[in-house]
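Batch job 17 of 40 flagged for manual review because the log was empty.
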Amino acid sequence: MTEIADGTTGGAGGQGGRRSRKGLKIKRIFTTPGVHPYDEVEWERRDVVMTNWRDGSVNFEQRGVEFPSFWSMNATNIVTTKYFRGALGTPQREWSLKQVVDRVVGVYTKTGLEHGYFATEEDAEIFDHELKYALIHQIFSFNSPVWFNVGTASPQQVSACFILSVDDTMESILEWYKEEGLIFKGGSGAGVNLSRIRSSKELLSSGGTASGPVSFMRGADASAGTIKSGGATRRAAKMVVLDVDHPDIVEFIESKAREEQKIRVLRDAGFDMDLGGRDIVSVQYQNANNSVRVSDEFMRAVENGGKFGLRARLTGEVIEEVDARELFRKMAQAAWECGDPGIQYDDTINDWHTCPESGRITASNPCSEYVHLDNSSCNLASINLMKFLRDDDTFDVESFTKMVELIITAMDISITFADFPTQKIAETTRAFRQLGIGYANLGALLMATGHAYDSDGGRALAAAITSLMTAVAYRRSAELAEVVGPYQGYQRNAEPHKRVIRKHVAANTQLRTYEAMDSAIHAEATRQWDRCVKLGEKHGYRNAQVSLLAPTGTIGLMMDCDTTGIEPDLALVKIKKLVGGGSMKIVNQTVPRALRKLGYQDEQIEAIVEYISEHGHVVDAPGLKPEHYAVFDCAMGERAIAPMGHVRMMAAVQPFLSGAISKTVNLPESATVEDIEQVYMAGWKLGLKALAVYRDNCKVGQPLSAAKKQPESKPEVQIVEVPRPQRRRLPNQRPSTTTRFTVGGAKGYMTASTYPDDGLGEVFLKMSKQGSTLAGVMDAFSIAISIGLQYGVPLETYVQKFVNMRFEPAGMTDDPDIRMAQSVMDYIFRRLALDYLPYEQRAALGIFSAAERAAQQRGEDPAALHEVDTAALAQSAPIEVRKDVPAQPAQGTASGTSLESRQGRTADAPLCLTCGMKMRPAGSCYVCESCGSTSGCS
């Protein structure tokens, strides 16, 4: 373990520049004395070329970048495009991962030396080498702002999470708009509680009626939307919180649900209500996550069926009483309709508050994992748990402990040199030094060790790791307090801080373990908590908070993690990018390891993996025991984890975190309002701090017929003879078009024949350099499609089924309208859709020509390209006639991939605004696996 030693290096401490005569003795974890960590890695040069999904043009190109050979191409692309600094094409542009790591770590090491963190320069060198080793080996990662800013000429902003405050004055409200705008401009997000603002049921000093917080939300939402659209590649992220006893709580709860109803009505009327569409700006509250802050008093009233008082903001008097269950039902109903509002448990949050003497915790960051004082920030880092699973399936407790020490030291150093967007945030953060260490790849670790995510053993292992992480982090914080002083607010909050530490210890004592792995981790956690308490009693703590669980979106991909944050695996089959371009479908590497752990032989593993590759799930896999199915349960698919399985996992780790957990509990589309009520109630009873839910497809295609009730009548029983479909053959002479194409280097020809008066009726395919078997298969497939068309199967149906189907060959094409194809089938049916489907049908499927995508990029309506002379249309073939209907949205209704279809359920997620690929859930946000962009979390 790290020792505290007398040293000659002095530095500014945490108490008004006090000099320290001690420093940390740093011990090695992975490095070798006399050997630089870069020299132990095989490096290779790669080319990073990113294309524009709208028109296929190259929008990023940097060749010859240098990365370790074991880094995936996906991680290479993300770091090169997002974290390399300097203008492209100039000598100042970074071209190697070494340069990025040197730039960042150099600032940390230099600052640590200058401020007395290390006993000697040798300790500083060990710190430097260990940090570099861990980063290039993907053992952990700082959050994105560190990579963006540290070591550059830009302000040294290291925090991704901010909490603001708003008072009941116009000056404060306008200041809130300004502060949020500055944070959004920098690519970060912020949260705020608006409960201090008077309700619309209260009077102003002038005698008029107050506007209420929901009205001011409109202005902030418009500001966020404007800055988002003019800013970087990701959406502005914000959280708006309102206390459950605010008189405007019902209006707040229903605000986004009403807007979602508006979206559906406008969409059906033909307006472009797609994400980023020209008409979506007319819809309000779309740039924020909303959460209701509930109290124990309210939740008990819900349990007992009692009344609950809504209180005036200035006087605190009850101005209205409501039925608690009815209000709770409104929350669940709104969440059922649109996913908002989430819920935050106020009394639980403040019961675990280390600094109550300095103010209550009223809000959170946009993803709900950071909860602390107003006008504060938190910088994050996440550990890749799979890096500590040894080949013999034991967990490397010693290395994990040392790595947590190293990371906490580095994170605290960063607050010393960091810049902040506002002076108030700077003062609060430097006074309380909030940190947020967390982890990623928990889902992969559980599967690899043979644990089902929703199991007692899985939860025990997760809880033990989390307890150890936070224990070591607080122990190191106490050691740092001895060296450079406790945080400035500690003396005022010493007793409540130590009370919270004792609560963590009590939770650790009650933790039940099941196997040797979690028992060993728990035993070390118990030792670390004991040392933490003793050192904290003597020296205090350097940090008011140390741990939380973030979404780990972009940095999870940077570390090549299979799973993000606390999440289970999304699916057993992934699409992997190749170094030379293109992609391939692979079964997660965690699956074979899990099968070996469960005792299966190589031949059995090979058969099971082949089955999973074909079907996307393990049900009925050859030789796999049904009792082992649960180990391979995922967030979506044939055996999706039940919603309460997610809640129970959050509850298992929450007592061992300073902050909260970024996670959305996904429910199936068939879930009821009662199901959401049960999840919200369970979250309170199980001690969670915050919870969000999302019902699949709740934002798209909701039935509107409920508002148009038809008169009830009993239909007469009739026997209806259904006409059999008749085949309509093509004439011997028919118009046809032959298209030569190339997909991923494979050449082919497609001949499409049409009826003289009524659309497509025949397709024939030929691939060059193909064997007799493939030629026969392609011929048979062509005949089947052609007969289907002639029997009246709509082309749109085929397009829905085959577009996005993924298999090799895949990659770049020579078609300017379709620059990338997931497979030959994907290309063929995209081309057929472009040639033979009307624009509005293609738009609904997300299929556009290059000209249409260019029009979208310019902010124009692509439908205008098809507003041509009707007389000319009358003389053309009927298939070319465009109905006078505005464009239907593409991204929101784009069909899922065949992989998702095979898994039995699609991932309800938006398409990436940067590269156009479907994103995937990461905590309570979304991340794009193609380019690393997120919906607001780093």
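Reviewer: the log was empty due to a logging misconfiguration, but the result itself is present. The first helix runs from residue 73 to 82. Unflagging and moving on to job 18.
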